[in-house]
Design goal:
Blueprint (H helix, E strand, L loop, with lengths): L18 E6 L41 E5 L1
Antiparallel strand pairs: 1-2
Organism: Hibiscus sabdariffa
Subcellular location: Cytoplasm
Protein name: ZF-HD dimerization-type domain-containing protein
Length: about 70
């Protein structure tokens, strides 16, 4: 009779990445068929500190309209 030894395998640790949201990419003239960007250069969260604010204090749009940079 053969012996079977089971080992628990721990997953490799994931590298830590930081995410920044930079310039706004929202096209404010899409309804007119043009391209107009507001020039907001960096996402600034609105609201109290510690909360994951999803609205930009500078331009008022959602965080998803800002270009995401991972480093």
């Amino acid at each position: 009779m053969k012996r079977v030894v089971l080992r628990s395998v721990e997953p490799a640790p994931r590298p830590v990445t930081t995410v920044r949201y930079v310039e706004c990419q929202k096209n404010y003239a899409a309804a007119a068929g043009c391209y107009v960007f507001d020039g907001c250069r960096e996402f600034m969260p609105s609201g109290a500190e510690g909360n994951a604010a999803l609205t930009c204090a500078a331009c008022g749009c959602h965080r998803n309209f800002h270009r995401k940079v991972e480093s």
